[in-house]
Amino acid sequence: MTELRCGSCNKKLGENFHGRIEIKCPRCGHYSIFISTNHKLDNVKSPVV
């Protein structure tokens, strides 16, 4: 499980995230940017046409 935490105060902001998100921490006001990729998609084969 991947947790998203504030880089300033370490407050938990979310978990199990895939994609890109910008979050403002409700506790300290620090802006955080998280970028995640789904590695499972790398193993998917394209259909044969």
Describe this structure in words.
With 49 residues, the protein is mostly beta strands. It has one domain. Helices cover 0% and strands 39% of the residues. It contains no helices and four strands. The chain has strands at 3-5, 12-15, 19-24, 31-36. The strands form two sheets. Strands 1-2 form a two-stranded antiparallel sheet. It is globular. The model has no long low-confidence stretch (mean pLDDT 80).
Could you give the topology of this structure?
Blueprint: E1 3-5, E2 12-15, E3 19-24, E4 31-36
Index terms:
49 residues; mainly beta; two-stranded antiparallel sheet; two-stranded antiparallel ribbon; 4 strands; globular; Com family DNA-binding transcriptional regulator
- Strand arrangement in the largest pleated sheet: 1-2
Gyration radius, to the nearest Å?
15 Å
Binned, the helix content reads under 10%
Kindly report how far apart the N and C termini lie.
37 Å
Oligomer: single chain
Largest sheet: 2 strands, antiparallel
Strand content: 35-45%
Average residue pLDDT: 80
**H and E string:** EEEE
Any low-confidence stretches, pLDDT <50, length ≥5? Answer: none
The dominant shape is: globular
Q: Would you count the extended β strands for me? A: 4
Number of domains: 1
Q: Which structural class matches the secondary elements?
A: mainly beta
Helical element count?
Answer: 0
Protein name: Com family DNA-binding transcriptional regulator
Organism: marine sediment metagenome
